[in-house]
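Two records follow; treat each independently.
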Amino acid sequence: MNTPMITTIALVLRVVISLIIYFSPINLYVKVFILFFLTDLIDEYYLRFATKNLNKPSDFIGRNLKSGIAKTYEYHLTDKAGDLFGYVLGVSLLAKTNYNTNYLMMAIMIRFIGVSLFFSWHSSDVWIIFPDIIKEFFIANIFFQESPVLFLIVYILKAIYEYYHHQVNGKRDFDQ
């Protein structure tokens, strides 16, 4: 199977499983946690399976997809789309409660702009300005009161991380 086919199947699996979770009768906050944090593993493990990188028990542990298919534009294209899909489902669940979703919606819009630019420019440099802060803000909001200052702190810290990851550590294979 070629890379676009493998990554497309991974995205379809992720979307289907995310919808099953969304409509399942489990606790709402458990659903949000799964949609925000665990569905990202679906495509990773499918890629390991599809590329025969599940040979020993330790292959099921850790995030060691740093080479091969995980460095392709096709992988990141489908991974970022899957992330956004899970975030939108999770925030729509939170909107049904008294949880204030304004900042999470702003974080999703920032990420949506970044993903759109990434699709156009094929460059991971967009993550420095448009980082994925949904998970980080969600966690920070558990420990601290939601505020513009908290949002800005999370944004700046994640932008610094993205700069280090993409500029200091090296760019992805698909960057121009």
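The next record belongs to a different protein.
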Amino acid sequence: MLVLRNPELTATRTLNPAIAAATESTLGGLLNLFPAARRLYVTVTVDLPIRVKGASEKTTILFGTPDTAIFLLKFPVGSGTKLSLRPVAESRAAQAVVDAVMLCEQGLAVAVRFQHVPKWFNEARGICPAAQRNPSYTRIQ
């Protein structure tokens, strides 16, 4: 099942073969919606939108585009849900909105779009020089 917040993401797109080989069973068709996605490895804490204060889940951003992060969650979230992502190496959280959700073997594959792209995400994508100095962010080529 695929749930999209933005219906224009449903356009037919071709998945990068290198990405398909590495993650087909894990993220499945969600990556088809984001053909510009590149592999990342950023461990983050996702603050969950429930009434229990401080509820969170630790996960890893596996792919990213200039303004979108793609990762797995066990906690159920829906399209349009506002989340807060905070990398282990940073104290500042970034606000994001769930754009797409797809069921997969490990729970949910989630794509979120940042409201304001945080510096730590740009560093992880390798577009800031600090990415070379910070070992907690890894861009896999």
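Discussion point: The CA atoms of residues 56 and 106 lie 17 Å apart. How would you locate this feature using only the token line?
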